[in-house]
Amino acid sequence: MADSEAVLAAHEPGLRHHFDDSAQQFESSTLGMWVFLVTEIMFFGGMFGAYTVYRNLYRDAFASTSRFMNLPIGAINTGVLICSSFTMVLAVRSAQLDRKRALIVFLILTLLLGCVFLGLKYVEYHEKWVDHHIPGPGFHYADSRYFHQAQILFFLYFAMTGMHAIHMIVGVGLLTTLIAMAARNRFSGAWYTPVEMIGLYWHFVDIVWIFLFPLLYLVGHT
Amino acid sequence: MMKHQAVPVKVYAAVFGALLALTITTVAVSRLELGEYNFIAAMTIAVIKGSLVVMFFMDVRRATSRTKLFVGAGFFWMAILLVFLLSDYLSRGWLPSPRWL
After folding, report:
1. What's the DSSP call for residue A24?
2. What is the ipTM of this complex?
3. N or C: which end of chain B has fewer CB within 10 A?
4. CATH number of the domain that A121 lies in?
């Protein structure tokens, strides 16, 4: 028994005994990760649903808020996240091809781009604070007609971008773990499942931003 | 060991280029006066970008049918949420209130 397990382990590193082979194990991980991501779609879906309802009720108020959004930072951040998805996919590819140095380099690049995104997000939040665009007692709005309705939009803005930013912070933590694991030589071309799974997570967070950007920054911009 | 061959870098680079180009397009289109079509254009571009990420970066195009079913179910349920919400909110006021209300 111990011998046969040793033989199996020698053939397929990282293979757990309750799977037939690495392909089956990999598919199980992918499916499990997607089940988690589906719960994330539902989670963000609720907020997108709230946005949809209030945009239909207060269309003009929502359109009027666009000009108080920092479009250049929003657009640059979209580019930064797309770049980070590109470096992430190159990291996964390096893991597949067993290029250990390239894997670490691309993971670090992804991490840095994630931090750039969060840094720019901080600048934006600070700007909202200075402009009194945070919903609550200190809220000010240039167009008094929309004083109450614009607060709903800014509330949704902070809820949605805030939840997205928390996901980014979690992603930065996950990437740091991956870099540490890669530095300790834990991955090989035969087993790199965590790189692939955290890649899926990172891309999902990118997709959320792809939808947040037009909804919050571009709608009614003209 | 893994079932999948590594995808050539140029495929990823092409998707990356397309995503950047679509981001510039969506900002440019938002500057035009198109009325309701501004929103439709922005969402269409977002859906195209999201699909590119799902299909190529997340590699769903090469995933097993079972994984594809789960992914599809996730987005389908999201569509149900939005369509049923809108079927209520958008259709309000289409018909006069019945007299007995």
Report:
1. H
2. 0.91
3. C
4. 1.20.120.80
